[in-house]
Amino acid sequence: MAEAHAEAHEVHHRSIWPLTVALAGGFGFGGLATQMWPLVVIGIVLLGVGVGGFLWQDARGISFAVKQAAEEKPFVGISVRKLGMWIFIVSEIFFFTGLIGAGLALRVRAPFWPNPASSDFPLNVPLTAVNTFILIASSFTMAEAVHAAHLGKEKHMKVFLLATLILGTTFVSIQAIEYFKIFLEENLTPWPNPIRPELGSFGSAFYTQTGFHGAHVTGGLFGLAFLSVKALRGRAWPSRAETVEIVGLYWHFVDVVWIFLFPIMYLIGR
Amino acid sequence: MAAPTTVAHGTERIAQELKRPYVLVLVLLAIVTVAEVQVPTLGRNLDFTTTLQASLLMTSSVVKASLVALYYMHLRYEPRLLSLLPVGPLVFVLLLVVTVMSH
Amino acid sequence: MAYPTVVKVREEAALEARTWREVAYHWMTTTNHKEIGILYIVFSFTFFVLAGLLAMFIRAELATPGPTILDESRYAQFFSTHGTSMIFLFIIPVFVGFANYFVPPLIGAKDMAFPRINALGFWMLLPAAAMIWIGQADVGWTGYAPLTNRIYTPGSGVDLWLAGLIMVGTSSILGGVNFLVTIFKLRRPGLTFWKMPLFVWAMMATSVMVVMATPVLAGALTLAFLDRNIGTCFFLTTGACAAHSPGNPGDPILWQHLFWFYSHPAVYIMVLPAMGVVNEVIPKMVRKPLYGYKAMALALFGIALIGFLVWVHHMFTTGLSLTARAPFMFATMAVAIPTGVKIFNWLATIWRGSINFRTPLLFAVGFIALFTIGGITGVYQASIPVDYKLQESYWVVAHLHYVLFGGSVMGLFAAAYFWFPTITGRMYNERLGQIHFLATLVGMNLTFFPMHFIGLSGMLRRTFDYTNEIAFWPELGPLNLLSSIGAFLLGASQLIFFYNVIVSRYKGKPAPADPWA
Question: Taking CB atoms and an 8 Å cutoff, what residues of chain B touch C254?
């Protein structure tokens, strides 16, 4: 019985951070729903604290995943965390299917949809084409960072992680600037407006899809920032290459979403 | 017992890593993207229908996404079954999209 | 497939010595899959009681025509919160709880793959439940557009409902990912897929559905939230969307597509774990190996697969073209095939077994009988012309309660009695368990069977007052009264269960090594 106890303690580390993150969700969503903004602020602070707590515990050797010595087919060699990320990506595919599918449903029923080849197209195609290339390039640098991490090339990894972080930040910044420009100058709003009433459905679809994509990119940036800071401070840990790989998987997924979103919103018109 | 297999697996991986054509993939992605951006103007000048333009662009997107998934996300070097995880559900993705677009 | 005869390690003495602060801290910081499972189970049963109380109010109101104890808006809030809670805060999480407790030991794992994410999945339900119950939205559990738009439902009730469900959905997805990774990666060496217990198979199929369907619901809820608060035009056809953007309005049917793309699979998310439980209970209780193991496992995945191809059958009357509807009609009918395989195999397992007629088996057999009724009424309804008559009528209420109460909840009680000795180390009271079964069986049929006739008579679901209808169909009076009497019996009989469980938890006889020998 004492043995069972000791084993239980080895496996089960206590953690207050799940509850913290859940409360963050409660305050954040509750605040959004009731439009009580102080609650949202509390939620964001708690989210930072909670996620920080998760990572702090992780740094002290309490891994996200349980350790298992031997394993059974079919996913031998793919770690628990990596498989978790892949399955999470599957769920994200379906989230974006819902959003993009909704946009496509609006498109086929809308009497008007702007054409990128016409002069009154509200979006800036050349700028976003460049931005698309920036995001793709960040996928390339991320792949190189993963490569360097696996080979143990410390310096390469740092450089490529930072490059990815900078490219990703550039993407989000350009996207934000474009938002301001089209909102103020092209009168493209998420809601139908009297100045360009024909863009009602397009605006709803555009801001929702690119907005949620941008939020996912921003989430990935936090992951990259975390890895970069650790790398710059010279903190290595046994599973670091794999952690870089997992953040990389998420980053590439976000890139894949954009690969579809860019032509759908910017290039296919009517 | 598990440790040696992990190490062997690791070295094997690194050997594979060395051969990975990341730069080539980047160049291909860039070329396809440049081509994509030309489609609306070309389509107007050559009188392509919207459907044709959309098909062209979706095909190129699938090609780009596959490149990223196969090389940057390493699916080409992973056990085949792992690819089934993201690819299999695409049937339902297609079904949902087609249904909401056509109802 | 040997059942782990867990002899409960008693920590009671240690727990009793602690102060309540220490106990609270213990439960708030636990990452142990068994303790999280217990948290899930206790949480879910709490909402079973609360949502059940709402059902009592609903049936009390409907016992006689005309307004009696509730007013219309309160009634709408009650049935909406009843449905939302029973589905999202009771049936779905309670099976997650049992699976949390039993999947890791059944596959030889020390814990779930991501213990802290597992705890996060549970804790997210708490604020979500608070939001749903504070919000008291009155849009039904389906929240059809455009009713959820601020134009039609001002105030923050619907906002809280949407936000609460987004959190429940997130929790489900985290759980689903966790179960899949656990089952894929943490099986002990030698335990191949084809040797796994069928409860694990069921949780695998369920989790596949959760991971693929729930995000679509989350997306749809998000869009509805944006429609309300930002003013986007996804689902709204009137108001600003029509005024400023003529010809560019949203599409309420789109909500139904996205909602049912999740919510039809959700029915199987609720039923497959119950089937998994029955797969475990019946062979043990009839002392015979399960008939057709592989067929059972494949049938679970067959149901899961076809479950994704049928969602439009909820929308047959929305004016879709026949070409769009017919494939969904056939797919819906096809669900009966893997389900039939399962029912046949259960009966074949019982056939000539040495039957140990104790409470878990009673509930398992109850599951088979009642779920068959619910399944057959579903196939019947799948026919498009028949659906025109039955859509939105009380028939649908009867059908869905036969599936979700007759199916999921009966399976759940089978699980609760079957695993009670394992979880608590004590035996429940067999006589009280059997009385509970009988009262539940009678109460359940008395409540829901008349609803078939009520629906065929033409009474619509969500009806608050049937004074007008009763003038045309006088039989609605006695049928509704009968249903209400049944509901009170059903409600009261659950008290037996809670009394039995709570008393046996502390005073029950210690469980033998194999309680079902």
Answer: 100
Binding partners of B (≥3 Cβ pairs within 8 A): A, C
Domain boundaries, chain A: 10-64, 75-88+105-270
CA dihedral defined by C212, C213, C218, C220, rounded to 10 degrees?
120
C10, C186, C39, C7: which is closest to C106 by C-alpha?
A: C186
User: How does pLDDT run along chain C (517 residues), one tens digit per residue?
Assistant: 334 433 344 445 455 567 888 888 989 999 999 999 999 999 999 999 999 999 999 999 999 998 999 999 999 999 999 999 999 999 999 999 999 999 999 999 989 999 999 999 999 999 999 999 999 999 999 999 889 999 999 989 999 999 999 999 999 999 999 999 999 999 988 899 999 999 999 999 999 999 999 999 999 999 999 999 998 999 988 888 887 777 777 889 999 999 999 999 999 999 999 999 999 999 999 999 999 999 999 999 999 999 999 999 999 998 888 888 999 999 999 999 999 999 999 999 999 999 999 999 999 999 999 999 999 999 999 999 999 999 999 999 999 999 999 999 999 999 999 999 999 999 999 999 999 999 999 999 999 999 999 999 989 999 999 999 999 999 999 999 999 999 999 999 999 999 999 999 999 999 998 998 7
Distance (Å) from the C-alpha of residue C369 to the closest C-alpha of chain A? 35
Which amino acid would we find at residue C186? Answer: L
Task: Indicate whether C278 belongs to any domain.
Answer: yes
Alpha-carbon gap, residue C73 to C75, rounded angstroms: 5
For residue A97, which residues of chain B lie inside 8 Å, CB to CB?
93, 96-97
Q: Which of B89, B92, B99 sits opposite C312 (nearest CB)?
A: B99
Q: How far apart are CA A24 and CA C120, in angstroms?
A: 11
Q: Which domain holds residue C256?
A: 26-507
Domains contained in chain C, number = 1
First vs last C-alpha separation in chain A: 72
The reply to whether C515 falls in a domain is: no
Inspect the interface and report whether the beta carbons of A140 and B33 lie closer than 8 Å. no
Q: Can you tell me the distance from the alpha carbon of A31 to that of C210, in angstroms, rounded to the nearest whole number?
A: 27
Count of other CB atoms within 10 angstroms of residue B98? 13
Is residue C4 included in any domain, yes or no?
no
As assigned by CATH, the class of the A75-88+105-270 domain is mainly alpha
Q: Among A139, A151, A259, select the one facing B17 at the smallest CB separation.
A: A151
Q: Could you tell me how many CB contacts below 8 A there are between chain A and chain B?
A: 136
Say if A137 is an interface residue toward chain B (CB within 8 Å): yes
Place of tokens 């539940």: C440
Q: In terms of CA atoms, which chain A residue is nearest residue B54?
A: A268
Q: Does A57 touch chain C (CB under 8 A)?
A: yes
User: CA-CA distance, C130 to A25, in Å (whole number)?
Assistant: 12
* Contact between B89 and C258 using a beta-carbon 8 Å cutoff: no
Could you tell me if residue C492 is inside a domain?
A: yes
Assessment of whether the complete model's pTM goes beyond 0.95: no
Nearest to C257 among B89, B92, B103 (CB): B103
Return the CATH number at C89. Answer: 1.20.210.10
